[in-house]
């Protein structure tokens, strides 16, 4: 099974078959991760750098663990403690790292398009671990894996993506993926946090009333309010955001159905999601994190076997 791409820069350019291959390979790796010995030799003698220009807990540790489970050699780069802080360019940094015989690059960057730029200039395979407000493809893949695990199929599944859609790379990657896989999507939140032309551009339904979106969906993927990407206030206060758009147990109790709760993390508890919901029986948030390792093993394994 081969992917149609040398890099994983986003979901936008993946085929439905690529996504199916990644999810089914991840399922095999999830079985491996249940065994007492969780390590396989698949990427022995492959060296991977985790190049993080932006903070991360889940994605960075998940990639590192995935690489170790595959027996790859790993290098970790944090921009704040590197010569990037002295002004070294992204391309110089990566070329210097590659000259040490590094085979693959996993990268997170605050600039949208940074991995796409890099892909034009270096020979190594690149995995986008989140670029600005553009895409976070492995998050969408692990979200899809988690929904498929829970519901059996993504076809016809009703997914509400709720919150700060405007600044969310998770939202965009999820929309691309879910549409390719035949799910139905509603994006919900305040008008100031939903791009004006998203309905026409991406063919998704927009709902400004979160209760209506929850009443409609099977799954709510609740997104973080990304205050660090907002140059000016886009809602009156966190308290008022929580009252108008936050997902609380009281709101869920007012529905006539149970829905599955997801969140990519990190959670602003008491803002977009209340703690009793995040930690409740319908939450699969920690399953998402667990599945991230198997999904990233699948991506790294498939790209390393793709003639690079
Ligand atoms: N979901 C996610 O990308 O989390 P981190 O920022 O901690 O990697």
Percent strand equals: 5-15%
Q: What is the helix tally?
A: 12
Rg estimate, integer Å: 19 Å
- Tell me the total number of β-strands: 9
Bound molecules: phosphoric acid mono(formamide)ester
Second rung of CATH, namely the architecture of the largest domain:
3-Layer(aba) Sandwich
Query: How would you characterize the largest beta sheet?
Result: 5 strands, parallel
Instruction: Write down the overall mean pLDDT.
Output: 96
Q: What is the overall silhouette?
A: globular
Distance between the termini: 15 Å
Structural class, judged by helices and strands?
A: alpha/beta
Strand order of the largest sheet: 7-6-5-8-9
Annotated CATH topology of the largest domain: Rossmann fold
CATH C-level class of the largest domain: Alpha Beta
How many domain units? 2
CATH superfamily placement of the largest domain: Aspartate/ornithine carbamoyltransferase
Oligomer: single chain
Task: Walk me through this protein's architecture.
The chain is of the alpha/beta class and 308 residues long. The chain has two domains: 11-135 and 289-307, Aspartate/ornithine carbamoyltransferase (Rossmann fold, 3-Layer(aba) Sandwich); 137-288, Aspartate/ornithine carbamoyltransferase (Rossmann fold), CATH 3.40.50.1370. It contains twelve helices and nine strands. It has helices at residues 16-33, 58-69, 90-98, 114-119, 137-151, 169-180, 198-202, 210-216, 238-245, 249-253, 275-278, 285-304, and strands spanning 47-52, 73-78, 104-109, 125-131, 158-162, 184-188, 205-207, 219-222, 260-262. The chain has a five-stranded parallel beta sheet, sandwiched between helices. Helix 4 links the parallel strand 3 (104-109) and strand 4 (125-131). Helix 1 crosses helix 12 and helix 2 crosses helix 12. The radius of gyration is 19 Å and the shape is globular. Phosphoric acid mono(formamide)ester is lined by residues 56-59, 130, 136, 139, 264-266. Phosphoric acid mono(formamide)ester binds next to helix 2. This is Aspartate carbamoyltransferase. Keywords: Pyrimidine biosynthesis, Transferase. GO terms for molecular function: aspartate carbamoyltransferase activity.
